[in-house]
Predict the structure.
Amino acid sequence: MARTNPMQFAQQVRAEVAKIVWPSRRETGITTVMVFIMATLFAIFFSVVDISARAGLEAIINLAS
């Protein structure tokens, strides 16, 4: 593997960093709100699944008793 001297490495790093496109404040805000909405929806979904599974298992246990 070819070795790169420190100056070339620093130049390559600066060139790569210059290619980064940062999101705007608006894009960041919208993305943050969407993450909170999706997290809430998933929490509700898994709560319903958990409650349903618990009720189903309790019904099976009560039938077997």
